[in-house]
Amino acid sequence: MTLSTPRQLEGKVALITGASSGIGRAAAIVLAQRGARIVAAARRQSELDDVVAEITAQGGIASSIVVDVTREADIIAMVQFAVDTYGQLDIAFNNAGTEGVFAPLIEQDNARFDLVFEPNVRGVFNCMKYEAKVMLEQGFGSIINNASMGGVIGFENAALYIGTKHAVVGMTKTASIEWFKHGVRVNALCPGLIETPFHHRGIWPSVEAQQAFAASTPASRFGTAEEMATVVAFLGSEDASYVSGHALLADGGYSVA
Ligand SMILES: NC(=O)c1ccc[n+]([C@@H]2O[C@H](COP(=O)([O-])OP(=O)(O)OC[C@H]3O[C@@H](n4cnc5c(N)ncnc54)[C@H](OP(=O)(O)O)[C@@H]3O)[C@@H](O)[C@H]2O)c1
């Protein structure tokens, strides 16, 4: 067994959705720093260009593709692009997602349901399916789905978002049972409160409420996107070769407090 090195992902190809911002952007940079060749995917080309430029400036290798994960055809093209560009697919981080609209369940409606379930559940489902077709054929691969600590516990006013993240954890566990025996591991990352643009789009009633929530975690703070990226690097690496079907909480200890 070889121990992890700073270049623990040397030779691997990593596909990352939602790589234009926040956790996905940090994952693209950290995985590239550890040796992976990156395919960065999201809807905003200019932000993807910035990520690719940053990786390239650091001596890494990256390409980008514009993708809307609510469109199955985009996902098929994205996976094909990764294989065409680099010849294989070792790691897929299905991270793209939205918080939708936070409100009491009784005030939610079908339009808001679709707004959050389309990218967070159908998008992850289709990403997993088409990535796995490549990985099962290869006989190896690691899929990491970005769920949330809200994939294992509930939150007031967030029934739709929480529902999507429980669905992601459920699909992760089931796919792991189906695919690990064929060499493909599947895990979920379950972040707690992470400092990204996600938190500046109105999910908090006030700045004070946001700060109080962060202070109530045992870590007494938000996590950083880089702290999520290093967990993704671990799950994607051979260091996690016996880890599959796991919902890995990286939440500053919040969910057990
Ligand atoms: N921040 C937190 O506290 C936290 C906690 C738990 C879980 N998470 C999860 O972490 C993931 C990333 O969130 P973040 O905090 O990094 O927020 P973020 O900075 O807003 O990033 C969201 C990313 O998803 C992409 N995206 C959204 N809809 C998409 C679509 N239809 N097709 C393709 N890409 C799409 C966005 O890119 P474009 O707009 O360019 O498409 C962006 O890159 C989400 O799944 C979120 O639920 C976040």
From TrEMBL:
UniProt GO molecular function: glucose 1-dehydrogenase [NAD(P)+] activity
Keyword Acyltransferase: no
Record-listed E.C. numbers: 1.1.1.47
Oxidoreductase is among the record's keywords: yes
Top class in the EC scheme: oxidoreductase
CDD domains, sorted: SDR_c
Keywords: Oxidoreductase
Coiled coil: none
Protein name: Glucose 1-dehydrogenase
